[in-house]
Amino acid sequence: MTTAAGLQTALTVPERFRGPDTTANGGWVAGTLASVVAGSARDSAVEVTLHRPVPLETELRLGQVANTVTLSKGDEQLVEAIPVAEEITPPPFVPFADAARAEAGFAGLRDHPFPGCFVCGVRAPGDGLRVFPGPVGDGVVAAGWRVPVAVADASGNVPDSIVWAALDCPTGWAHFKPGEYALLGRLTGRIYGRVLPGGTYSIVARATGRDGRKLYGESAIYETDGTLIAAARATWIAPR
């Protein structure tokens, strides 16, 4: 519905799209809001800030005033998304075969803090995305992404929420050792091309710095010929 404050509608995050067991995957939420900001145009990046964890299976309020999109629970704002005029520098392309081989070194296969995560958790094929980024050198990790057909929408397209989710977790794993974790605080991303259900892509991420509890990283999705499909920059917050 539309009110004097702008457009408002309800959003419920299905339990399938979890990160930690009780909250939504940050990348999926970020992509959901980013798709509202961008609409059909993808001529700029979108910055999404996650102020608080987003609960699952709970009716939330999705609001839009001008170019700002928010997600709230009652009077508490959980997430905010805005367009930003800036470029995202993607990590360099890694060929699919090399990215797929790197998965054997994925730290989460030995000790995963959130094994049920929709993106990087060890869930059944077709249920989760099973993105397992392993080291390829110099703070860079990569994974070969085989896009499940089951993530396509009714029109046969892979939604932006899925693409942003795939960009999310690898930026954390560029930092994490087995058993380590952090929570996504901000994700700035841009989609340049289409991800196809059943397609194969290279996902590449690199650690770009650390400041106290804040961890920084960048990620990208590439077609097998090296064409850039999407890129993101992330800030993670490690526990105290």
UniProtKB/TrEMBL annotation:
SUPFAM superfamilies: Thioesterase/thiol ester dehydrase-isomerase. It comes from the Bacteria. This is Thioesterase superfamily protein.
